[in-house]
Amino acid sequence: MHQFKLQRSTIAVGLACAAVLTLSGCAATSITGSTAVPAAEASAKKMKAEPVKISMPVVDAFRGSGIFFFDDNVRSRLYISDTIAVNGRLPLKEEAPRGVAKGFTWGAGAATILRNGEPQPLTSPQALSVEKSGNVRLHYPPLKAKNAKPMSLSIKLIAYDLSGLPIGPYLKTRVGKSTPAGWLIANRYVFPEGSVGYRTVASVDETEVLVPTQKAFTGSAQIEDFSQRFAKDIPYCLRFIPNRDAEPLGLRFPKAIVKQTKTVKLTRGRTRTEEVAQSGEAMLYPVKKNTLFCAAEGSQTAAAQWNLQYVNGTRVISFTFPDEVSPANYGFLKTHRDALRLAFAEERVKQRGKTTTQVRPAALWLAGKPVLDEQWRFNAVAADAVSDAIRLTADQRAAWEAEQKAQSRAK
Fold it and tell me: In the record, which residues are listed under signal peptide (predicted)?
């Protein structure tokens, strides 16, 4: 299997390009009407290293102009569209270009969630209610899965004064990686007075099955097939977060899983066959880096515990790793270790008019476990400054994109 990395394949190239552009004399110049302050013109007193936390009700961030967020260099916003609440809920409106990631989504971001094995479209929240804790709950439209409970997210926002801080470092993905816009803006421009940034901590009331990307497959139709395929010499290579200490892992089963069932007695002498939940152990191996196919490199280093069960009607096998294994080695941030579980789920798909299943890489977001979203959101003042900084670095962006295309053609 391929090794999957949780960052853009062009990050290294992008960082190099950003460095070249910075060193090539592309100094920031003052532009009339810009709200992004050139770093050279910023007051030395306000070039503080860290943002300052400020106290404010969470719901207030959604009032007025609302909250802004950037998918790389694309701007969107979410705001309360009417001050009159209906059944305790304030209506919300999200303004975002088609195809752009939603402002608040599941876990550290996901392509979809599964209910009854069916992928559910990611939609914008319809309304907001204020919880007793002061957090807000975002309410989403009904799901298409039969009898599925509508999704909702409990959101805590932590507000910070960003005035005087460089803009680039605050343009990140949901797993904390710098975006191309962030690389290019870097420390050239700083936020003006009145700029506020928000960190997001989200949680769900019921455990959810997340599919991080719909581009990843295992080649198996059922979990039993998946375990059989990787119960031999070749392990399944896990996605990992590249860093200096990254140690990619391969996962292998000691033997194939066999479905277990039991007979349940019903009324009037009837019976029903039900599947029995199972658990077991999977072996973990170090694997070779930068190879097309997964190959073990050395002997077993640890073991992960697996659980096979149904979650929201979806058949899922999830894994719990020992504390000594870094979450980055199996694709999660350290801050998400207690909230997310590596998993594989059976997704229902239609092929040639028939419904079948395919096993996809997935994750379980555990009920009541908070997840810190590494992407920053902004108030209107800060968002306008980001938009200006993106505009002022448009030439550098064009040069960087041209370089990417040239390198792609050369491969």
Answer: 1-27
